[in-house]
Design goal:
Protein name: Fe2OG dioxygenase domain-containing protein
CATH class: Mainly Beta
Bound molecules: 2-oxoglutaric acid, fe (ii) ion
Pfam families: 2OG-FeII_Oxy (PF03171), DIOX_N (PF14226)
Distance between the termini: 37 Å
CATH topology: Jelly Rolls
Radius of gyration: 19 Å
Strand content: 15-25%
Keywords: Iron, Metal-binding, Oxidoreductase
Largest sheet: 8 strands, mixed
Shape: globular
Helix content: 25-40%
Number of strands: 12
GO molecular function, one term: oxidoreductase activity
Structural class: alpha+beta
Number of domains: 1
Order of helices and strands: EHHEHHEEHHHHEEEEEEHEEHHH
Number of helices: 12
CATH superfamily: B-lactam Antibiotic, Isopenicillin N Synthase, Chain
Organism: Ceriporiopsis subvermispora (strain B)
CATH architecture: Sandwich
């Protein structure tokens, strides 16, 4: 069980990329230095550690739910597969996604549970889930999602102010009663086969599709492409610290001020590579009907930043949040790969010069 295993520690001799540590309790208290730290992290790398977020108990229970679900027979899990049409909710089998433009398959399996389905349960909004998920909808999944939404909403309120947006602008883009792609995801990656130390992407390089990701992991393997370089570096997991990052919609809303950074998952380094790797994410995504465009009319800060953007294609796609999201999912499915152009059609904001 992911929650009960004692893992070897992250190897000392493997280079890691440091993240700023942001204290959630201080943010809630309006601490100015902490808010400044969050802004620095969000504009420079787009990733930070978050401590004192108060969700650790729910996270452990979610890992139990994940373990119960992944041990179901393969055929049972496949009844809930997300399919090839661009829906994210449901089960994703190992190999169902490509990790690069040559069509190399991923090795992770995951279960995505929609916020809308969790809140409307037992009535499905988008789809149904395996019995192990249903069994924990009220006791585990709803509490985890509720708390994660609260944390991400607090962060959105702070970004709203720092971007000079009228009060409630970002909240309007993430209305609680509008259906969205927001979801919880539990990921399992099998241990690295004995003796093989070569890096192979378990989950391909990507930027996140939505607004904010609230990630919990136990083992190394997550890497970021360090801004201004073409180098991948590990982010070291720290017990009790979540890893937060921004997704494409926040880059677009902010006219490029906030960073949605490229990242990927490879097998954990050193002795950790012999273990199953489990991770858990809550993704906050804008409401389905929200058009992803820079909020230049709402904020001078965004308008000024946007004057400096040279390649505007990503900012002017005219796509709604649900179109952006479905396009990215559909074009990374292995079954849909017709060549490098399919993979490229799955891309987010990462081709921008600022994200290279
Ligand atoms: O497993 C991880 O550490 C990261 C997962 C991730 O990037 C994702 O699911 O979008
Ligand atoms: Fe991600």
């Amino acid at each position: 069980m992911p929650g009960l295993t004692t893992y070897p520690s992250f190897p000392e001799n493997v280079p890691t990329h440091p993240l700023l540590v942001v204290d959630y309790e201080l943010l809630e208290a309006g601490d100015k230095d902490e808010v400044a730290k969050l802004w620095k992290a969000a504009t420079e790398l787009g990733f930070w550690y978050l401590k004192n977020h108060g969700v650790n108990e729910e996270v452990n229970q979610m890992f139990e739910m994940g373990a119960e679900t992944m041990t179901l027979p393969y055929e049972e899990k496949m009844k809930f597969e997300q399919g090839d049409d661009g829906m994210s909710f449901g089960y994703k089998a190992p190999g169902a996604n490509a990790v690069d433009e040559t069509g190399t398959k991923d090795s992770v399996e995951f279960m995505n549970i929609s916020k809308d389905d969790a809140f409307s349960w037992p009535t499905p909004t988008h789809r149904t889930y395996p019995s192990t998920v249903d069994a924990r909808m009220e006791s585990t999944i709803r509490p985890f999602i509720r708390k994660s939404v609260e944390v991400n909403d607090t962060l959105l309120t702070i970004f709203n102010e720092l971007l000079g947006l009228p009060e409630g602008t970002l909240a309007q883009k993430h209305k609680p009663d509008e259906h969205s792609g927001s979801e919880a995801r539990c990921i399992k990656n099998p241990p690295r086969p004995g003796g093989i130390s070569e890096e192979k992407a378990a989950l391909g390089a990507h930027t996140d599709f939505g607004s904010l990701s609230f990630l919990h992991n136990r083992l190394g393997g997550l890497q970021v492409m360090v801004p201004g370089t073409t180098q991948w570096q590990y982010i070291k997991p720290i017990p009790g610290h979540a890893i937060c990052n921004l997704g494409d919609s926040m880059t677009i809303f902010s006219g490029g001020i906030l960073r949605s950074n490229l990242h990927r998952v490879v097998p954990p380094p050193g002795a950790q590579g012999q273990f199953e790797r489990w991770s858990l994410v809550y993704f906050t995504r804008p409401g389905n009907s929200v058009i992803l465009k820079p909020l230049v009319e709402e904020s001078n800060i965004v308008a000024d930043a946007y004057t400096k953007v040279v390649d505007r294609s990503i900012y002017e796609s005219g796509q709604t949040s649900s179109e952006w999201f479905a396009r990215r999912i559909r074009n990374q499915r292995s079954k849909n790969q017709k060549g490098p152009e399919t993979w490229r059609a799955s891309r987010g904001t990462e081709h921008l010069p600022s994200a290279a």
